[in-house]
Amino acid sequence: MTIRVAMWSGPRNISTAMMRSWENRPDTVVLDEPFYAAYLARTGLDHPGREEVLAAQPQDPARVVADLLADDRAPVQYSKQMTHHLDMSADRGWLGELRNVLLIRDPREVVASYVKSRESCEPDDIGIRQQVTLLEELTGADGQDRVPVIDAADFLGDPGGYLFWLCDWLGIDFTDAMLEWPAGPRESDGVWAPYWYDAVLASTRFAPYRPREVELDDHDAAVAEACRPAYETLAERALRL
Questions:
Q1: What is the mean pLDDT of each run of 10 residues along the chain (241 residues)?
Q2: Which of 3, 45, 57, 209 is the most exposed place for a label (fewest CB within 10 A)?
């Protein structure tokens, strides 16, 4: 039976590098943001490469879910998922078919990076508040979380340790192949890669974490602060090795 891993992140995190890591496993197929076209079709938002994205993927979220759950090409399926792509008013019972993980990052760093590629930014654009909703939904009745929360800053301090933990949690073997990959594009990359993936295309491994000097205008600072309580809720549950 295919193990379906869904890594739920907001934009401008280490999510694409994480996808590279998992794709470098010999037993894994990766999916890059399968709900992106459905999200753009539903919201009408103007993102870089919008028409290319709409043409490249199914726009019906039910079709996306069906395709996701029917994909048995490899023993492990890894989907890079953006939390803000979900329609939060729709049924999400299908999440129970996946092994879900939440990948978080400080909202000031997210916003500062996001506005380099897109002029406008609002709280719902960066997915952190939606991650809290998923955390609440995926918490067991016994009060124990059934979804690991990983902070990118912590992960970058010990990628091998966190990947080993995740593989153990999933019941699969860890491989050092997850720590290094060839530079360049992949056939699995979404058509939006030219607009968002410059740094990852040049990468061959996870870069060490370094604190960033973040300067935001008043609007963007307010967006980050609106997401701060949600981030702190998630950070309190984050896995610490």
A1: 96 94 98 98 93 97 98 98 94 94 96 82 93 89 74 97 98 98 96 92 93 88 96 96 94
A2: 45
Strand order in the sheet with 3-9: 28-32, 76-82, 3-9, 99-104, 149-151
What is the domain-level CATH number for residue 29?
A: 3.40.50.300
Whether residue 241 lies inside any domain: the answer is no
Q: What are phi and psi of 28, to 5 degrees?
A: -125, 135
Task: Tell me the helix, strand and coil percentages in the chain, rounded to 5.
Answer: 45, 10, 40
This prediction has a pTM of: 0.95
Question: Would you say residue 165 lies in a domain?
Answer: yes
Coil, strand or helix at 77: strand
CB 198 within 8 A of CB 14: no
The answer as to whether 162 is a domain residue is yes
